[in-house]
Amino acid sequence: MNKVKTFFGEVKHELKETTWPKKDAMKKNTATVFGVMAFFGVFFYAADAAISFLLNII
Fold it and tell me: Are 13 and 21 in contact (CB under 8 A)?
C-alpha cells in the first residue's frame, strides 16, 4: 500500500511541475492537427482514386 501512495504522490508532484499550454496555443495546435489531417485525407483519397483509375485502364 505504501508503494501505491508513493506512486500517486510522485504523480501529483510531476503534474504540478508540468507546463501546460495556454488557451491560444492549444487552439492553434488543434487547428494545425485538423488541417494536417484534412490535407492527408484528401491526399490519400486522391492517390487512391488515381491508382484505382490507372488499374482499371489496364
Answer: no
CA distances from 23 to 14, 29, 32, 37 (A): 21, 10, 14, 21
Kindly report the length of the chain.
58
Find the distance separating the first CA and the last CA of the chain, reported in whole Å: 68
Closest by CA to 29, choosing from 21, 41, 18, 38, is 21
Residues 5-58 have pLDDT tens digits of 999 999 999 999 999 999 999 999 999 999 999 999 999 999 999 999 999 998
CA distance linking residue 26 with residue 30, whole number of Å:
6
Within 10 Å of residue 19's Cβ, how many Cβ atoms?
A: 5
pTM comes to: 0.65
